[in-house]
Structure prediction request, 286 residues.
Amino acid sequence: MPAPLRKDVFSFREMALRWFDEARKFGQRQSRSANGRNKGGDAGVNWRPSRHFMVQVLWVVGIGSFLAITSPFGATKGQPPLIGWAYWTGFVGYGALAAHFIVPALEKLLGRWPRPVLYLVLSLTLAVVVSAGIVGMTMLTGEWVPFRFWPKLYGYVWVISIGITIVMVLRGQNNKTSLDQSANFENRIPAKIAGGTLYAINAEDHYLRIRTSRGEALILMRLGDALVELAGMDGLRTHRSWWVARAGVREVLRQNGKITLELRDGTMAPVSRTYAPDLRSAGWFS
Prediction:
């Protein structure tokens, strides 16, 4: 059991050390458990992270590493580098996970508010969630953050949340062109099937057949031009004449070594050997 924190002093450094010690013990228990399952012949789960997931992980690790080096407010100053890195990276990872749920909720509730105000609300909300997480994690180690330190803790977390929010906004600006291109393609969808979820497009001579949850229709457009406008959407090319949205896939079928994607409207989209590796690396199938 870790040594108790002094009741009259709240130390970020001691808290980070305590968390790291608890995480190390948990990791050792999980490792022993996994070794036991492997000896018993458990083949395990073949899980492949998507490209989007890996980008998020790289951002978390990058920001966490920067904070570990700079050690804002001296939170991990004087501690071993690995402890500081684990503390800050875990802190940023928890915030990123919280943002994954908070951002869509704020967009839905406050989407018409001015962007700067929305970003301010986002940073304040993230700071509340992360501060609560810090207090909760400290309680799990058998200690308590005194009430008088809560405003100070929240202030520290909010300042860092502002910085992370700025990074998120800058990333969003970099992706703006792709999003605008996606909007251009959505404007090309005929009115009778517009407003539905895009499932797939496929080339038919000089035309494109667009499949959505509201039906299908033909438009005069080259597949290559459509792929440029679809670059910002969550989908991939599966065949020389097909592009499929991830949201449009109901099931992955395999027969005689060939892979086919069954779409939600029952259409079968082919997967060629050329594009199968891209789909596999993106986590569409193993």
